[in-house]
Amino acid sequence: MVILVARNASNLVENFKNVKDVNAYLIFSTIITFMFAFGGVETTPNIANNVQFNKFSKALIIAIVTIIGFYTIAYILFLNLNLNLISDGFIQVYKTVLGTTGLVIFSIYLLFYNISSTMTSTLANPKVLVSAAQIGFLPSFLTRTNRFNQHRNAIITNAVLIIVSMFIFTLLPMFLKLNTNFFRNVINMGTIAFLLQYVLSFITIFVLVKQKKITNIRWW
């Protein structure tokens, strides 16, 4: 994006002029989409007991600040771009700047991103099911472990839920020939869930601290 901005004249004024009907809904929906960048932070505590690392608070703060900084720079660059240059999506940035090489780099990035995301979700998400089962919100069979001390039932259940979700949110709209941008709507619903989850988590923490059930929270 830096190269694209450097190659072309700034379109900052034109982009602002083309924006119409700015309202609270537009601003809120944009913020909600931005929240998706923090998806996955909530799974970090689930693996805290399985790693030899005791500075999660510091790591989380650094990660959040880094993400905010990255997105701020990206938004500033986007505001200066001629949006016609990226009409085909973010992949157009790679294609315009690096040609075929850019497409290869983007494809490799997507491959490793999906592999790492799948591996992380396989490790962290089942622990959410286990925690819920341990306090009685889900069936107790999810807490059972195999000979490797891994929660096999929770991992299998998580995999089944992912497959079912993929079918419902990806293949089903194709079969039904829905005209709406179903994937984007699902992303928006997911980010709303993230926002509510974060807000409720903070409220829960403050309540527990006030009740002195949680003490000595380290912020750094």
Report the C-alpha radius of gyration, rounded: 21 Å
Helix proportion: 55-70%
Low-pLDDT runs of 5+ residues are none
General shape: globular
Determine the strand fraction and express it as a percent band. Answer: under 5%
Describe the structure.
By secondary structure, the chain is mainly α. Among the domains are: 106-178; 180-219. It has 8 helices and no strands. The protein has helices at residues 2-7, 12-18, 24-35, 56-80, 91-98, 100-134, 152-176, 182-210. Helix 3 (24-35) crosses helix 8 (182-210) and helix 6 (100-134) packs across helix 7 (152-176). The longest helix has 35 residues, at 100-134. It is globular, with a radius of gyration of 21 Å. The mean pLDDT is 75.
Task: Tag the structure with descriptive keywords.
220 residues; mainly alpha; 8 helices; 0% strand; globular; transmembrane
Topology:
Elements: H1 2-7, H2 12-18, H3 24-35, H4 56-80, H5 91-98, H6 100-134, H7 152-176, H8 182-210
Helix pairs in contact: 3-8, 5-6, 6-7
